[in-house]
Structure formats: structure tokens, C-alpha cells
UniProtKB/TrEMBL annotation:
<dbReference type="InterPro" id="IPR038461">
    <property type="entry name" value="Schlafen_AlbA_2_dom_sf"/>
</dbReference>
<dbReference type="InterPro" id="IPR007421">
    <property type="entry name" value="Schlafen_AlbA_2_dom"/>
</dbReference>
<feature type="region of interest" description="Disordered">
    <location>
        <begin position="1"/>
        <end position="24"/>
    </location>
</feature>
<feature type="compositionally biased region" description="Polar residues">
    <location>
        <begin position="1"/>
        <end position="15"/>
    </location>
</feature>
<protein>
    <recommendedName>
        <fullName>Schlafen AlbA-2 domain-containing protein</fullName>
    </recommendedName>
</protein>
<feature type="domain" description="Schlafen AlbA-2">
    <location>
        <begin position="22"/>
        <end position="126"/>
    </location>
</feature>
<dbReference type="Pfam" id="PF04326">
    <property type="entry name" value="SLFN_AlbA_2"/>
</dbReference>
Length: 246
């Protein structure tokens, strides 16, 4: 994570759910999203920017958790999605941790009446970006989108190459993550887990009524490829080759 913030919070007694957009919460979320992600800890009293003691935050209800996520969407432009909210500790010693993900959609702006500004983290403080910083973030956003489109087009061309589309119909789908979850290569076990979960999702959404290409690959023994793992096609017989996954 790029940054963090600790603060005390007493649940809905001090910050009603409907008033969250007017608190510092959206500003801190936007600042962390603009700074590579971060963590907000509710339930720690601080002095001179240093944690001094734990403070019970009270019960975090599902409604309040929804309000936290809603504030990150309605009070920030572009919205910040995928907040992870964690409850920690037992009664009398409860804390809440909010994980703010990294974002490629910056700068995330906060609007106050007719004015807007872009917050960013500076060590343990939240400050406002200067014009040149905002300009640089917009440039980075547009460059990322251009590179993402080029990467997707390249993946599609690679996947479509060599397919006899003049003789039969092909469904070709590719995807490219905008924010990689890990810089390390997936292990074989990780790749096997991804393929297994993907198969389960396919059956959940499509049911058993049709043909599922993922049923015709060796999901349990993926092979290493160039910056990827490859599930080898197993539909090789005359009766099944038509439904193969390339």
C-alpha cells in the first residue's frame, strides 16, 4: 500500500452514515487512491502523528459499511471502487480497517460546492495537488488507457492468429488487467486454482445447457508459457475437436 492513516472513530454516534460525504473520509480515500493505495485504521488515538492507544469504535453495522463504500463513490470523482472493510478485535477493543486500492483513474477529485481539488498523501498528511501535479496525473491516466488498448489489441491478434475463421466460427475473448495484483509469477498451484474457479463461474452463469470450452482443457496441469500459464487443449478427437479451446 502507498500510504496509511490512523484515526479514532466511534461509529455512527459521531459520524452518522448520511453525513459521511461531508467528513474527511472521502478526502482521505481520494488522497490514498491518488497515492498508490493505502490503509485507514479507525480505533487508534494519535498524538503528534503517533499512535498512543487503542480506542473501541463500537459496532460496525452492515448499513454503516455500505455507507463507507457509498461515500467513496458518491463524494469522489471518478469514484473509488473496491474498498475492503475489515472488522478487528472483540467487544470493548474493536477496530476497523479500510483498505483503499491503487487506482489508474486519477486524479480523484473532491467537490465542495462549486469548487474541486485533488488530495494526495504526503507522508502522514493529506495535502492538495498543485496544477502541474494534476496535469501529470491526467497525462498518466490517458497514457495508461492507450497502453492498455494496445496490449489488448496485441493479445487479440495473437489469440486470433492461425484460426481457420474462413471455415468455421470462432469465439475469441481476451482480457488484460489494468492493475496487476502481483509482480511475481503465479505458481502452478495458483494457475490451477484460477482455472478451477473460472470453470465454476462459467457453470454458475451459463449452466449446463451449452458447451463449455473450459471443460475441454487440462485444468489440473497448466504448462508454463511466455509470461503466462497455458491450459492445454484436450478436445482432439473427431467428435470433440469442433468444440476445442485454442
Amino acid at each position: 500500500m502507498g500510504s496509511w492513516r490512523q484515526t479514532t472513530w466511534t461509529g455512527s454516534r459521531s459520524s452518522p452514515a448520511k453525513g459521511l460525504p461531508q467528513t474527511d473520509f472521502p478526502k482521505d480515500v481520494a488522497a490514498m487512491a491518488n497515492s498508490g493505495g493505502g490503509v485507514i485504521v479507525f480505533g487508534v488515538r494519535e498524538s503528534q502523528k503517533a499512535a498512543t492507544e487503542r480506542v473501541d469504535v463500537g459496532e460496525l453495522t452492515e448499513a454503516y459499511e455500505r455507507s463507507l463504500r457509498s461515500a467513496a463513490i458518491t463524494a469522489i470523482t471518478p469514484p473509488v471502487f473496491r474498498l475492503n472493510v475489515h472488522r478487528l478485535g472483540d467487544e470493548g477493543n474493536r477496530a476497523v480497517v479500510v483498505e483503499v486500492p491503487a487506482s489508474v483513474d486519477g486524479p480523484h477529485l473532491i467537490y465542495k460546492n462549486d469548487y474541486f481539488a485533488a488530495p494526495v498523501r504526503n507522508d502522514s498528511d493529506t495535502v492538495w495537488m498543485k496544477e502541474r501535479q494534476i496535469e501529470a496525473m491526467y497525462r498518466a491516466r490517458f497514457e495508461e488507457r492507450r497502453h492498455a488498448t494496445e496490449a489488448l489489441d496485441s493479445l487479440y491478434d495473437e489469440a486470433a492468429a492461425g484460426r481457420d475463421s474462413d471455415k468455421r466460427a470462432w469465439l475469441i475473448a481476451v482480457a488484460h488487467p489494468r492493475i496487476p495484483r502481483s509482480r511475481d509469477r503465479l505458481t502452478r498451484e495458483d494457475a490451477r486454482s484460477v482455472l478451477t474457479k473460472t470453470m465454476g463461474l462459467a457453470l454458475t452463469y451459463a449452466g449446463r445447457a451449452g458447451i463449455h470450452p473450459l471443460e475441454n482443457v487440462d485444468r489440473n496441469n497448466p504448462r508454463p508459457g511466455l509470461r503466462r500459464w497455458v491450459a492445454v487443449n484436450t478436445a482432439t478427437g473427431e467428435r470433440s475437436v469442433w468444440r476445442r479451446r485454442g
